[in-house]
Design a protein that fits this description.
By secondary structure, the protein is of the alpha/beta class. Helices cover 25% and strands 21% of the residues. The N and C termini lie close together (10 Å).
């Protein structure tokens, strides 16, 4: 059995996975905004050497909570916790260190060092067969490639990344809670003219996201972070997955909070999945999830039109502003705090 908690993380991501072997183990995946710490903090105060943290990329809505935790002297982060995060400073040599200054990652690396914590990189070709093993759990890394991280070094300075953090923090403090103008694109228009993903080199922060297939007791969950779907499809294709040989998934964590450029027909057609997980409070200025993403999942995210799908979310979604009654056919929307995946049934699904 394993349990997946989905914290209220504003526009961001924050998940806590708990599983049992001969002991209990936990994995924190991202940490939302700073305010998210009040939700996950009480559950991680005793994190130790059996537990791990993965920060998918250095964006405010993914690292804010950990930044808050590291500044909490009443609940220090145990230095024995395994901490995984990619930043350019982990990939450059000392003589290049003036390229990306100490501010990179919002001083996060400096703060980790002060607390005695060594972050470990997690990217393609870092581990044998691109697999990280964590106490009975398996993470099959799909992204990022080292090429993406090198490009991030070349085009982003520490000061720019730090300013991006501050801008998004201010944006979060001033967020608008109501959805903006409704997207009136018809279903046919979306399917015939689906948004194309950004080129990865034009969206480097999100394209540097750590994405992986998490496996435990034959159950697979694809955590996308904010990753570029084309990069994920390319890697899965390298592994032999096609529309005729789909990757079986219990859950897909939808990329980038349901943004319209981060879910594609190509991706949905090479996975076999009927449960999707969305992390967003739908606030402005982006008002995720997009209508386009939900239409694509409805059309291509199931093996047949008659097969029902479930979209889980950590906040209540105003579905009436996103889909018509007909477009919601065989889709169940559920607001959740946690999911329990117990055991494999005779039909190959999990309880």
């Amino acid at each position: 059995m394993f349990n997946l908690r989905c914290f209220k993380a504003g526009k961001g991501d924050c998940f806590l996975l708990t599983w049992e072997t001969d002991e209990t183990h936990r994995l924190l995946i991202d940490s939302g905004i700073e305010g998210t710490y009040r939700f996950f903090g009480p559950l991680v105060k005793d994190f130790n050497e059996k537990d791990s943290i993965v920060i998918t990329h250095v964006d405010y809505d993914h690292i804010g909570g950990v930044f808050k935790w590291l500044n909490d002297d009443q609940q220090p982060l145990n230095p024995l916790v395994r901490f995984y995060m990619n930043t350019p400073q982990l990939l450059i040599t000392p003589e290049q260190s003036d390229k990306v200054g100490i501010e990179h990652g919002i001083n996060l690396e400096q703060l980790l060092k002060e607390k005695g914590i060594t972050p470990h990189p997690l990217f393609l070709q870092q581990y044998e067969d691109n697999i990280l093993y964590l106490n009975g759990l398996q993470l099959k890394i799909l992204s990022p490639a080292k090429e993406v991280l090198k490009k991030l070094i070349e085009e982003w300075t520490a000061k720019e990344i730090y300013q991006n953090y501050l801008d998004k923090k201010l944006e979060d403090n001033d967020k608008v809670s109501a959805r903006g103008i409704s997207n009136n694109r018809s279903k046919d228009d979306i399917l015939n003219n689906a948004p194309k993903p950004h080129r990865w080199d034009k969206d480097l922060l999100n394209s540097s996201s750590i994405a992986f297939v998490l496996s435990f007791n034959e159950a697979n969950i694809l955590f996308m972070g904010d990753s570029n779907p084309d990069l994920i499809v390319d890697e899965l294709s390298e592994q032999g997955y096609t529309p005729d040989n789909k990757l079986p998934l219990e859950i897909l964590k939808i990329s980038h909070h349901g943004a319209k450029y981060n879910t594609t027909k190509r991706l949905l057609e090479i996975i076999d999945c009927s449960k999707y997980l969305l992390s967003t409070d739908s606030s402005g200025p982006y008002y995720h999830p997009s209508r386009e993403t939900l239409i694509l999942i409805s059309e291509y995210g199931r093996s047949s039109r008659d097969k029902p799908i479930v979209i889980y979310s950590n906040y209540s979604l105003d579905i009436d502003k996103l889909l018509s009654q007909d477009e919601r056919f065989n889709i169940e929307f559920k607001e959740i705090e946690h999911l329990e995946i117990v055991k494999k049934k005779d039909d190959g699904t999990f309880e």
